[in-house]
DNA sequence: GGAAAAGGTTGCATTAAGAAACCAAATCAA
DNA sequence: TTGATTTGGTTTCTTAATGCAACCTTTTCC
């Protein structure tokens, strides 16, 4: 019984989860955003088993989220760096962080601030084209013909 | 060897992933945002095994993301509805959707539009207090003493 | 040159996931 | 009212994933 694939589910969210939806991937990405580049530093920073880390890093590389760069003089010192695609997950990571802080309190040792001002960030929100904040009740899911689907709260 | 717990990792992202970080939870939540409330409808809509759906729903209920409401006359007709905490994951779901669409193309049968205007939504972004858009390079991770940590891209 | 570090791989035990069968209560059709 | 079907599960079995520890090779440090 191989694990269910999500990329043929006709859903972009499922497709995203297929790439970064397991327990560790987003934490590896968050660690990379924090500055970590070396295998051992990921291992120590996350407390992840080496074989799992191997698997996650190579999967992230395969999916174009990270790259493996050879930085050794003679061959076997590597760095794992975020690609543009990986860095673009910043929104997701921050949204998850803020959600957790709103509902579970701040469990984090560290804080995220604007580099130039030192001030905390604004809350990540969903907006319409005019910049108005939208909740799930303010949107419609429409099919390819523009027909709206039922929606709930 | 029980799966690693993330809620004692000193990280809000890890704490969030501990609640909704497995393969199915966010899809169940997205399905609920789409209007699904009944057990069978989740099952048909997602193609998930019943025992896994049972487990995920009850875990989401335990974590306060959904509630189980008895809607039957005599006892065993249930609806699973999002709580405020669950609805608040809208930002995360939309951010994931949009990321996937930006990098993998739109794999989705349906589209998300502003209910009042019918227009597509704006891209979810991270902003500072002044409303300026920030990337991961524009932020600093600081510890509890305000000391900045190294950061990369 | 010897020791340690980096980046893995392998083997084993435990847990989770998926499919299918089964089941009891409630509802629906006749 | 009876019988079938739906709903919301639970159980069993097989396969896959996770975690830990040991090991291994190349490279760097002293």
From TrEMBL, chains A, B:
Please state every residue range assigned to the domain named HTH hxlR-type: 11-108
Q: Does the keyword Disulfide bond apply?
A: no
The protein's UniProt keywords, in alphabetical order, are: DNA-binding, Transcription, Transcription regulation
What Pfam families does this protein map onto?
HxlR
- Specify the superkingdom: Bacteria
The protein's matches in InterPro entries, at most eight in alphabetical order, are given as: HTH_HxlR, WH-like_DNA-bd_sf, WH_DNA-bd_sf
GO molecular function terms listed in the Swiss-Prot or TrEMBL record? DNA binding
* PANTHER family listed in its UniProt record: TRANSCRIPTIONAL REGULATOR, MARR FAMILY, TRANSCRIPTIONAL REGULATORY PROTEIN
Q: What is this protein called?
A: Transcriptional regulator, HxlR family
């Amino acid at each position: 019984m191989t694990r269910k694939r999500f990329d043929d589910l006709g859903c972009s969210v499922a497709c995203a989860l297929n790439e970064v939806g397991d327990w560790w991937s987003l934490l590896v990405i968050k660690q990379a955003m924090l500055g970590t580049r070396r295998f051992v530093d990921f291992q120590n920073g996350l407390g992840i088993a080496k074989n799992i880390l191997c698997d996650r890093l190579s999967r992230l590389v395969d999916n174009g989220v990270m790259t493996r760069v050879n930085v050794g003089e003679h061959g076997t010192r590597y760095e794992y760096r975020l690609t543009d695609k990986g860095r673009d997950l910043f929104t997701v990571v921050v949204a998850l962080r803020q959600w957790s802080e709103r509902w579970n309190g701040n469990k984090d040792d560290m804080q995220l601030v604007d580099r130039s001002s030192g001030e905390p960030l604004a809350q990540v929100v969903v907006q319409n084209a005019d910049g108005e904040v939208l909740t799930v009740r303010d949107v419609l899911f429409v099919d390819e013909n523009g027909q709206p689907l039922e929606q709930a709260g």
